[in-house]
Write a structure and sequence with these properties.
about 375 residues; alpha/beta; D-Amino Acid Oxidase, Chain A, domain 2
Length: about 375
């Protein structure tokens, strides 16, 4: 017998669980989340888990500011006793060219106009914030003390537990195999464990966003690329903020227990779902990180891993209902910052689905922006 649901959410990462929680909180009774593996098994569990408001485009700043405000009180809202381990020790973004300095000053002016407490700092001031930073060729930096780092597994677990308390049915090891559309409206979702009748489907499938969209006949311009990360052995506490360099396509942070986590973005990575990792990454990371942060020399690498960035052409997410299929909603193409936007993304989707005004207006992030040619490329992505 075919079962029914008011909403089916495809993808059990933090955006999927956040959306399910917010739907249930707004009174939607029959919410089903389907996840092909386990919670946070995709990009969420493989991300660097940093959260920042220091972006160069207005929409990303607005979303990030609202998300961080929610993260700050998430333990209380979700009654999550283990805690999501939100450490707000800041982000230091470093600039090495005149072009970057000009962009950073422009970014800070926009951020401050939107209520973000960021500031431009000189190389000497940057070294006061991170004493072991090599400033030989540094030309400037920006800093925001409210940025930070969160445990991605605990944050996802917090949303999943809260959603289940509100009656959400989360089904693991269940894959979406088809989406039936009738008269331009979603009608059924076929899964590896049976068929579900529904009028609303939410695509929060991360790296698999394009494949899931195509199940409903919706063509989206997203694609996935590998992103490699490593973690070192623990060391004495040396570094508070995340240090990020767009010049080196690198970020590096020290966790509360002492290990350094760092990653490099490579725009030349082939498109696809390869998440193997390489010795070339280790070599490149060692060279760049030890030059920028010499204190890292001699630290041993404990392990490395890879995950996927689900990219969009303008490095902004696609949030909203598909123009060609009623009831098919998406939160995809975050281009490496889906984790940090999840609290507000889930709320916005739930508000859209239930016909409410959204807490942040995201009309500019609809899929139809690509056909209209209304792209606003985010300049601050690693």
């Amino acid at each position: 017998m075919t079962e029914t649901a008011d909403v089916v959410v495809i993808g059990g990462g933090i955006n999927g669980t956040s959306t399910a929680y917010h739907l249930a909180r707004l009174g939607v009774k029959r919410v089903v989340v389907i996840e092909r593996e386990y919670l946070a098994s995709g990009s969420t569990g493989r991300c660097g888990a940093g959260v920042r408001q220091q972006w160069g485009a207005e929409m990303n700043i607005r979303l990030a500011k609202a998300a961080i405000e929610k993260f700050e009180h998430l333990d209380e809202e979700l009654e999550y006793e283990p805690g999501i381990e939100f450490n707000q020790r800041g982000y230091l973004l470093v600039a090495y060219t005149e072009k970057q300095v000009l962009q950073f000053r422009k970014n800070v002016a926009l951020q401050q106009s939107l209520g973000v407490p960021s500031r431009f700092v000189t190389p000497r001031e940057a070294k006061e914030i991170v004493p072991h930073l090599n400033i030989d060729t540094l030309m400037g930096a920006t800093f925001c003390g409210k940025d930070g780092h969160i445990n991605p597994f605990k944050a996802t677990d917090a949303y999943a537990r809260a959603a289940r308390k509100l009656g959400v049915d989360i089904r693991l090891h269940t894959e979406a195999t088809g989406i039936e559309v009738s008269g331009g409206t979603v009608s059924f979702v076929d899964t590896s464990r049976g068929r579900i009748e529904t009028k609303v489907v939410v695509n929060t499938a991360g790296p698999w966003s394009r494949e899931v969209s195509l199940l409903a006949g919706v063509d989206v311009p997203t694609y996935s690329q590998r992103h490699q990360i490593l973690v070192t052995e623990p060391a004495n506490q040396l570094q508070g903020p995340m240090v990020m360099s767009f010049h080196h396509s690198l970020y590096c942070q020290q966790t509360p227990h002492g290990s350094f986590v760092m990653g490099i973005g490579n725009p030349d990575e082939p498109i696809g779902h390869d998440i193997c990792h390489s010795w070339q990454f280790l070599e490149e990371m060692a060279e760049k990180a030890c030059h920028m942060l010499p204190v890292l020399r001699g630290l041993r690498v404990v392990r490395q891993w890879s995950g996927s960035y689900n990219m969009s052409p303008d490095a902004h997410p696609i949030i909203g209902e598909a123009p060609t299929v009623r009831g098919f909603f998406m939160a995809i193409g975050f281009s490496g910052h889906g984790f940090m936007l999840a609290p507000i993304t889930g709320q916005i989707l739930a508000e859209m689905i239930t016909g409410r005004n959204t807490v942040v207006h995201v009309e500019k992030l609809g899929l139809d922006r690509f056909t209209r040619g209304e792209l606003n490329v985010e300049p601050s992505v690693v």
